[in-house]
Amino acid sequence: MTPDALLLHYAEDLLLLLDARTLVIEACNQTVCNRLGYPSGALVGKSITDIECALSDVFFWEEVRQGGSPRIEAAEGLYLCADGGTLPVRKDVFSPAEAPGKLVVRARDIRAQRHAEEAQMRMASHLKATLEATADGILALHRDGSIANLNRRFTQLWNIPNPYLLARDDQAILAYMATQFDDPEAYLQRLAEIGLDQDGESADLLTLADGRILQRTSLPARQAEHIIGRVFSFTDVTARHLAEQELIAARDEAQASDRAKSEFLAMVSHEIRTPMNGVLGMAELLLTTELDTEQDDYARTIIASGEALLAVINDILDYSKLEAQKISMDEQDFDLADLMRGVQQVFLKQQQDKGLEFACRIEPGMPTHLHGDPARLRQVLLNLIGNAFKFTHQGGIRVEATLQEVVAGQALLRFSVRDTGIGIPPDKQASIFRPFEQADRSTTRKYGGTGLGLAICSQIVALMGGDIGVQSSDGNGSEFWFTARLHLAQDALAQAPAAAAPAALLRADTRILVVEDIATNRVALAGLLKKLGAQDITFANDGHECLELCRRGAYDLIFMDVQMPGLDGFDATRQLREHGCASRIVGVSAHVTLQDIEHCLKAGMDDHIAKPVSMKAIQEALARWRQAGG
Ligand code: ADP
Predict the structure, then answer these.
(1) For residues 195 and 449, what is the distance between their CA atoms, to the nearest angstrom?
(2) How far, in Å, CA of 68 to CA of 251, rounded?
(3) Residue 389 near ligand 1, beta carbon < 6 Å
(4) Is the CA virtual torsion 274, 280, 286, 292 positive or negative?
(5) How far is the CA of 292 from the centre of ligand 1 (A)?
(6) Burial (Cβ within 10 Å: 0-12, 13-18, ≥19) of residue 74
(7) pLDDT value at position 612?
(8) Cα(113)–Cα(481) distance, integer angstroms
(9) For 60-93, what is each residue's pLDDT tens digit?
């Protein structure tokens, strides 16, 4: 093969040489046979119209035959293959100057190009469908501000006139958008800020002159990391926006009416309280005058009813103040033991009247010098204990304060008020902390109350950084608990850990007898005594056991609970003294009036301390014993 023939053999194009007059193929390169599937040389002698089969090919060769120009460039046609298939080609036909009377056909297989074009068309059609399927209006702009793409939703949202769209008049479309604002300038300025060549997303709300609100978001469009423009998406959020505005307005209105309600309640309560105090004061004065029995009875009823009414008003006033966030917490040092003692005293009469057990206990060794709002703490305790008394008819009430943790000078305290009363059904336990809710409305008549107490407690406890809750079951008593975060008072903080342990006031061999029927009280008292150095502590559950123990051995110091079932502390003491008992006997009782102390001394006791027993009270009692020569 000559070098020229070799090159032709491997040429990419299909090359054919024709007789210009007869259109008979005189020669073709191997590529023609290879691509069309004919054996070498099989096409020589055939007419070009035997293998070019597209309608346009047929017309073209017919024209050439009739003397038309044989010159054609980049025309598409179809070649018939040996197997009956076709090959799409793009071809040039010309008559070479070097060979008059001849025609050269140069064709290129365009199957690969056709496939690529079809794939691109499919992709474009998918993209178009996707663009049209979104609920948002889409506008894609080139960096130069011309429109790259848009969808039908966009044209609907912006009411773009059809002529602009048909003419694809980008500037008219964009200018028309600006005309839909009260302030087109501001819109254009914002568009310029977003920038078509800038990176980053944008999101804003557009308020159109017709009242509609469109949410506009945009993202840069990239090609090979280069920003080529920006795609804007528009959503009509008018309905959602209006609904939000309505919700906000409704919330503001509700808050305002809540505030107004609280203020009204506070004002009304105050206005009622002032004359109520007058009514009560005068009724008290009335009692000091000469009254017959009936009148005295009436006056006392006025006082009792007035006090009940005042309690309700106070609750409402308190609650409305808390609601209106008009209560701030006080900050002062106080002693928790004193506070608990005071709280206990409030209920002494009820305890006696109802014949209930009542014990208050502070966890031995826990810090009691605190800093916070004692009045509010007391209020919560009074409320919970008051409820416990109200709903308990037999058994007792136990109040306990324990230390949960101390973090950065702040103690987390837990208070528990446990009663053996009527209990609360589980489905009511959450609602009773809401205002004006009572577990059983039918019992309101029997027990009274407003249903505000626990709601007030919840709010105060929240102000003290704590939680409140209840464990109870119907008919089986309740335990109300709450936690509170209180700072340790400076003096408590100043105590170094070593100094925090009280100095040993008691010798290890001091024989001590603790007579107390309530186990938690026994443990509490013994805990404090141990901290003061006591090691020899014996317990008696009641007066009889105490007498028995004292018959068998002698004690230096006896802590005698005065109120115990069976043989109480007074009688036990009397009997001990009758049998010549010389122990130092310290009465322990919730009674702290002078008469009570006198009662203790009369029974033969040497001293008296009050419950809940504090470290300070024991230290003072031991100091008095020492002064007395003990
Ligand atoms: P009030 O006692 O004035 O009705 P509270 O808010 O203090 O209001 O209490 C709400 C309700 O919770 C009470 O009405 C009662 O049904 C229930 N409750 C509270 N404490 C106890 C308790 N210790 N035992 C049983 N029920 C209780």
Answers:
(1) 68
(2) 87
(3) no
(4) positive
(5) 39
(6) exposed
(7) 67
(8) 82
(9) 999 998 888 889 999 999 999 999 999 999 999 9
| Centre of ligand 1 from the C-alpha of residue 346, in Å | 19
Amino acid at the residue 608: H
Give the span between the Cα atoms of 293 and 311, in whole angstroms: 27
SS3 (DSSP) at 301: helix
The backbone region for 27, taken as left when phi is positive above 0, alpha when psi lies in -120 to 50, beta otherwise, is beta
pLDDT digits (tens, 9 = 90+) for 307-363: 878 878 888 777 777 776 767 788 889 999 989 988 888 888 888 889 898 999 998
- Dihedral class, residue 231 (left if φ above 0, else alpha if ψ from -120 to 50, else beta): beta
12 has a pLDDT exceeding 60: yes
Rg over alpha carbons for the chain, rounded to the nearest Å, is 51
Please give the distance of CA 111 from its chain centroid, rounded to a whole number: 63
Round to whole Å and give the CA distance between 321 and 459.
11
CB-count burial class (<10 Å; 0-12, 13-18, 19+) for 312: middle
Q: What is the pLDDT of residue 436?
A: 76
Q: For ligand 1, is residue 388 a contact (CB within 6 Å)?
A: yes
What is the reported pLDDT for 531? 80
Return the H-helix or E-strand segment holding 455.
helix 453-463
Top mutation candidate among 309, 393, 420, 432 for ligand 1, by most atoms within 8 Å of CB: 432
Backbone angles phi, psi at 412, to 5 degrees: -100, 115
What is the Cα–Cα distance from 386 to 391, expressed in whole angstroms? 9
Averaged pLDDT, 505-529: 83
Among 446, 392, 400, 383, smallest CA distance to 419 is for 392
**301 vs 402, which has greater pLDDT?**
402
Q: What is the pLDDT of residues 256-276, one digit of tens each?
A: 888 787 778 777 777 777 777
- How far is 367 from 347, CA to CA, in rounded Å? 25
Q: Which atom of ligand 1 is nearest to the CA of 452?
A: 6
Q: Kindly provide the b/e burial profile for residues 246-259, where b requires at least 16 CB atoms within 10 angstroms of the residue's own CB.
A: eeeeeeeeeeeeee
With a 6 Å cutoff on the Cβ, whether 453 touches ligand 1 is yes
Structure tokens at 285: 């004065």
Single-letter residue type at 66: Q
Tell me how many helices (H) and strands (E) the chain has: 23, 22
**Taken in order 133, 134, 137, 143, is the CA torsion positive or negative?**
negative
What pLDDT is stored for residue 590 in this prediction? 67
| Residue 403 CA, ligand 1 centroid: distance in Å | 26
Q: Evaluate whether 483 touches 413 at the Cβ level (below 8 Å).
A: yes
Say whether pLDDT at 495 is over 50: no
Q: Can you read off the two tokens belonging to residue 321?
A: 């103040």
CA pair distance 152, 132, nearest whole angstrom: 6
pLDDT at 241 over 70: yes
**Where in 434-524 does DSSP place strands (E)?**
468-472, 478-488, 511-515
How is the beta sheet containing 584-589 ordered, strand by strand? 536-540, 511-515, 557-561, 584-589, 607-610
- Counting from 1 in the atom list of ligand 1, the atom nearest the Cα of 388 is 23
**Separation of CA 320 and ligand 1 centre (Å):** 19
pLDDT given at position 350: 86
Q: Mean of the pLDDT values across residues 430-459?
A: 77
Closest alpha carbon to 609 in 562, 555, 541? 562
